[in-house]
Each structure stands twice: as C-alpha cells, then as structure tokens.
C-alpha cells in the first residue's frame, strides 16, 4: 500500500498521483491520499517521513514559500524546521509518496516510478 501526501492544487502533485495510480492499478495495490493541507502532519509523522526519505528537514521543505522567510527559518535547527512544518503545513514539500518503509518526493513526478523498478 502507498500513501501520497497530496495537494490537489499542485500540478506536480497531480502528475505524481496519476503516475502512482497507473502503477498500482497494474499491481492491484491501494493508494491512500492524504491532503496534508487539510490534515496536517504532526511532529512524529514528519520525523518518520524524514527517516524514510533519508534527508534533512530543510530538504523536505518549500524554502521559497513566504512563510519560510517570515518565520526566519534560514539556518534554523532540525527541531525548529520540524516544528515549522508541523505548524505550517504549506512548508512541506509536495508531493511525498511512501510505501511504509521508504519515501520519495515527487519532484519530478517520475521519481515515484523508482518504487516499481525491480
């Protein structure tokens, strides 16, 4: 089963979801869609995704968002960045797809295809 943290207003997120759905249809697996702006991630979920992505908090953030600058997050600690993402869902990079053990940021959308390469 796959989970996508999705923003339906984002073209990259929609493209990633389409690719994911196409792939899982062939393998008869399920996709859970979480609109993370409506159902924000908490600290633990963010930490879990960071571990699955094997990246730092800054790599999982939308650093060009006005909120990043407004919250003065340049040079912030991992904990501060995680708190910012938990408190301001818009700062989370999108889309993120996970299979429960590994996660991928769908930028470009084709990144999601690595889940299906044997």
Automatic annotation (TrEMBL):
Reactions catalysed, as given in the entry: [glutaredoxin]-dithiol + arsenate + glutathione + H(+) = glutathionyl-S-S-[glutaredoxin] + arsenite + H2O
Keyword list, A-Z: Oxidoreductase
Enzyme Commission number(s): 1.20.4.1
InterPro entries for the chain: Arsenate_reductase, Arsenate_reductase-like, Thioredoxin-like_sf
GO MF, one annotated term: arsenate reductase (glutaredoxin) activity
Transmembrane regions listed in the UniProt entry: none
UniProt record similarity statement: Belongs to the ArsC family.
Protein name per UniProt: Arsenate reductase
């Amino acid at each position: 089963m796959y989970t996508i943290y999705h923003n339906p207003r984002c073209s990259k997120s929609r493209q990633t979801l389409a690719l994911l759905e196409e792939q899982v249809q062939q393998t008869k697996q399920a996709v859970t869609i979480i609109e993370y702006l409506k159902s924000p991630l908490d600290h633990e979920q963010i930490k879990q995704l960071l571990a699955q992505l094997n990246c730092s908090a800054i790599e999982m953030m939308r650093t060009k968002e006005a909120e990043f600058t407004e919250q003065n997050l340049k040079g912030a600690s991992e904990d501060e960045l995680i708190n910012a993402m938990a408190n301001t869902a818009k700062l989370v990079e999108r889309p993120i797809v996970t299979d429960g053990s590994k996660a991928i940021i769908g930028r470009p959308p084709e990144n999601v295809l690595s889940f299906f390469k044997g």
